[in-house]
Amino acid sequence: MLQKWGHTQIAVGTRMASYHDEVKISLPALLTPQHHLVFTFFHVDLQMKLEAPKPVIIGYSVLPLSTHIQYASSTQLFFSVLVTSYLLFVTCQLLQMLLSDVSLPILRELVPHYLQESGKERMDYLEDGKTVFRLRLRLCSSLFPINERIRDFFVEYDRHTLHTSPPWGSELLEAINSLKNVESTALLQFLQPILNMLLHLIGDGGETLQVAAFRAMVNILTR
């Protein structure tokens, strides 16, 4: 189940503490510069026997989610998700960030306006600012495709429907034909928007695109 927050445990008494839990967090579809993840580190004093151990906050780490988003840029990828009926923008850099291993420093405390440049001057770090906190991010989304072929198909479909691509549709045709090389597990995650787009092309895409879209749909449905 997707959560907005979660706890994880670490191995006590080891030189390099390791996290054992996977947390799936629900994120908004449209990311702004204010969207970020905050990691809070607690220490539990196990020596206290007279009362229940109380967690003590020892630091924080902050990961901005929109660091690499660039609106109104020529390098943007333009996605149209039919199910949600609105347009989403995301760059390759953002997808790469959400599919990578990240190293972050640990703050002693969260100062006011810690996301802004003015707040960074007042930040006090543990371990001299070394990036001692490491985590692995994996994007699981039905909005932002990870697979390059699916992403290309979405991009070329949008260019075609918005009439920003060449009228003969060669790039879209190539993207449609490449869907047969996409693994079934990757297709399943975006099955509904892909089928919607193919059906739209079959109904109104020109003879060449109609045939290619029909063959692609048959290939997907007969796997």
From TrEMBL:
Transmembrane segments: 77-99
GO molecular function, one term: guanyl-nucleotide exchange factor activity
Keywords: Membrane, Transmembrane, Transmembrane helix
The UniProt record lists the keyword Transmembrane helix: yes
PROSITE patterns named among the record's database cross-references: C2_DOCK
Protein family according to the UniProt entry: Belongs to the DOCK family.
Gene Ontology biological-process annotations: small GTPase-mediated signal transduction
Residue span(s) of domain C2 DOCK-type: 1-140
UniProt protein name: C2 DOCK-type domain-containing protein
UniProt KW Transmembrane keyword: yes
Pfam families associated with the record: DOCK-C2
